[in-house]
Amino acid sequence: MMSGSASQIVVFIALLIYSTGSSGSSLGDGKPKIRCKEAERQALLRIKDDLYNSTVGTFPSSWGNEEEKRECCEWSGISCDNKSGHVVKLDLSNGNAGGLFIGNMSSSLVELQYLSYLDLSGSSSVDGSFIPHFIGRLGKLRYLNLSYTSLSGEIPPQLGNLSRLQYLDLGHNYQLEIKSLESISRLSSLRLLDLSSANMSNAHDWVHVVNNLPHLTNLKLRGCGLPDTVPPSLSLVNSSTFLAVVDLSGNPLSASVFLWLFNYSRSLVDLDLSSSLSNTSIPEAFGNLAALESLNLAFNELGGPIPKSFGNMTALVNLDLSGNQLEGSIPQGFGNMTFLQYLDLGNNMLSGEIPKSIWQICSLQHFRAYNNSLSGQLQFTESATRCAHFPLEILDLEKNRIVGSLPNFTLYPLLKELWLNSNQLNGNVSKSLGQLSKLEILQIPDNSLNSEDASWVLLSQNGS
Ligand SMILES: *[C@@H]1O[C@H](CO)[C@@H](O)[C@H](O)[C@H]1NC(C)=O
Ligand SMILES: *[C@@H]1O[C@H](CO)[C@@H](O)[C@H](O)[C@H]1NC(C)=O
Ligand SMILES: *[C@@H]1O[C@H](CO)[C@@H](O)[C@H](O)[C@H]1NC(C)=O
Ligand SMILES: *[C@@H]1O[C@H](CO)[C@@H](O)[C@H](O)[C@H]1NC(C)=O
Ligand SMILES: *[C@@H]1O[C@H](CO)[C@@H](O)[C@H](O)[C@H]1NC(C)=O
Ligand SMILES: *[C@@H]1O[C@H](CO)[C@@H](O)[C@H](O)[C@H]1NC(C)=O
Ligand SMILES: *[C@@H]1O[C@H](CO)[C@@H](O)[C@H](O)[C@H]1NC(C)=O
Ligand SMILES: *[C@@H]1O[C@H](CO)[C@@H](O)[C@H](O)[C@H]1NC(C)=O
Ligand SMILES: *[C@@H]1O[C@H](CO)[C@@H](O)[C@H](O)[C@H]1NC(C)=O
Ligand SMILES: *[C@@H]1O[C@H](CO)[C@@H](O)[C@H](O)[C@H]1NC(C)=O
Ligand SMILES: *[C@@H]1O[C@H](CO)[C@@H](O)[C@H](O)[C@H]1NC(C)=O
Ligand SMILES: *[C@@H]1O[C@H](CO)[C@@H](O)[C@H](O)[C@H]1NC(C)=O
């Protein structure tokens, strides 16, 4: 993907080469060598006419039929093969061009027979365009991004002809209806598949197809209404997939999805199952997901304890268990997560003391455990000083049963937000708070604190 600034740099360099070429008679025969094939240029202009609604957006001015615009390889959003001159990349994504769909995609696309990268994402104004059948004739495509284009209808079987396709993003087309992944099952080079927001409530073959795409690493099926089919056992299929990034959030799934996912325990790096499970508990086997760096189980109805095995997920950077009904205490093993940066345990029913080991995680930036029943004292132990420094910025323990006096916060000089309101803290407001120069929010009301210095109380009340 080319970012806005990167494409500007490309255009800038292109202009530079063009102007040197056309003005500098000392170079060669004085004429820049045109790489663009005229037939492809005419196809591109037809594609523009078919896609672009001038009343809604602006199109890159580098495109045109004028003599000085003959080098289509230098038009914004276009890349050509630097040997053959054929157009290999067309990026009219919203960031790159204000180009907007008028109805269906242009059939002139098939005239770009060497196209390997097509991005029309975000360029939609008309609801209800279809994925055209001729898409199957773009046989060299390796990247196809039609996300956010208001596509509707079904995936045509011809899409399955794109055997070289590695990246397929059809996400965020809310009217897309996918009854089967049969055509996608033939995309054997696929690495990334994003069908988020499509209606897949009848696509009972989704697990089977995913299991059999040999190169798939990245699967995003957010909010697809996925049927909770009992996943077929992987031992029955010949799978060599290495799923690493899986986002199934916002689907009505059940605990059987865990069993299926544990087949990928060695490869999973990023798993999002938020808002997708009800009335189940977190299996102990999660601890086998040793490569996991990000786990989101927020907003489910997960009950029971946090498994002790979590202490074996030592690669975690991001852990969100908020918005569940988890009980019991936070496992001691959390201190094993030495790379942890973001931890959210808020809105659960956790009790017991916060393990001291958590305060010894040298990378922790945000720690939230608001609205639980955590008790005990806050004690930042001396051994915590084994870290060079603590990057903790947000500590949110609002609405718990923390007792005792405020600890010395000097260990956490980067604290920006400190939420300790609605606990059972007592004693004096510690002067160490005065050394927290980054503090923006201090919330300590609804405790039994004496204010040594009234300005702290003011600060905490302003912060609300
Ligand atoms: C053509 O592009 C390839 C890959 O982008 C690059 O390695 C190569 O040096 C280029 N050749 C010329 C002649 O610019
Ligand atoms: C272009 O967009 C405008 C505004 O949305 C719309 O009224 C018009 O019908 C569009 N033109 C075509 C040819 O679709
Ligand atoms: C888009 O294509 C479909 C199917 O080919 C066709 O029925 C529909 O009329 C086309 N829409 C427009 C605006 O051309
Ligand atoms: C597709 O385009 C969208 C919007 O431009 C972008 O957010 C997304 O990352 C792209 N998908 C892929 C697979 O590159
Ligand atoms: C493309 O796919 C269709 C439907 O699956 C099939 O009938 C056709 O033969 C394929 N074309 C090519 C060129 O493979
Ligand atoms: C999804 O498609 C099914 C079957 O066509 C339909 O019954 C259901 O209402 C659709 N769901 C949504 C959210 O549109
Ligand atoms: C399983 O996959 C391997 C490697 O891709 C392949 O060699 C083998 O033929 C496949 N077996 C079956 C039964 O499909
Ligand atoms: C693989 O998934 C199936 C369900 O799809 C499950 O029965 C089996 O236990 C899983 N195997 C492993 C090793 O996780
Ligand atoms: C939750 O699951 C348990 C055991 O699996 C079952 O007995 C109970 O009826 C379920 N409750 C609801 C509300 O589905
Ligand atoms: C962590 O993994 C080790 C080695 O696989 C295992 O022996 C141990 O029981 C696991 N700990 C927990 C709490 O599951
Ligand atoms: C911490 O990790 C080690 C291996 O890295 C493991 O043996 C141990 O069981 C873990 N501790 C807990 C409490 O999970
Ligand atoms: C807090 O701890 C630091 C370093 O250990 C120490 O210098 C400072 O005096 C303490 N502050 C209070 C108010 O106890």
Automatic annotation (TrEMBL):
<feature type="domain" description="Leucine-rich repeat-containing N-terminal plant-type">
    <location>
        <begin position="39"/>
        <end position="81"/>
    </location>
</feature>
<keyword id="KW-0325">Glycoprotein</keyword>
<dbReference type="Pfam" id="PF13855">
    <property type="entry name" value="LRR_8"/>
</dbReference>
<keyword id="KW-0433">Leucine-rich repeat</keyword>
<keyword id="KW-0732">Signal</keyword>
<keyword id="KW-0677">Repeat</keyword>
<keyword id="KW-0472">Membrane</keyword>
<keyword id="KW-0812">Transmembrane</keyword>
<dbReference type="InterPro" id="IPR001611">
    <property type="entry name" value="Leu-rich_rpt"/>
</dbReference>
<dbReference type="GO" id="GO:0016020">
    <property type="term" value="C:membrane"/>
</dbReference>
<dbReference type="InterPro" id="IPR052592">
    <property type="entry name" value="LRR-RLK"/>
</dbReference>
<dbReference type="Pfam" id="PF08263">
    <property type="entry name" value="LRRNT_2"/>
</dbReference>
<feature type="signal peptide">
    <location>
        <begin position="1"/>
        <end position="24"/>
    </location>
</feature>
<keyword id="KW-1133">Transmembrane helix</keyword>
<dbReference type="InterPro" id="IPR032675">
    <property type="entry name" value="LRR_dom_sf"/>
</dbReference>
<protein>
    <recommendedName>
        <fullName>Leucine-rich repeat-containing N-terminal plant-type domain-containing protein</fullName>
    </recommendedName>
</protein>
<dbReference type="InterPro" id="IPR013210">
    <property type="entry name" value="LRR_N_plant-typ"/>
</dbReference>
<dbReference type="Pfam" id="PF00560">
    <property type="entry name" value="LRR_1"/>
</dbReference>
<dbReference type="InterPro" id="IPR003591">
    <property type="entry name" value="Leu-rich_rpt_typical-subtyp"/>
</dbReference>
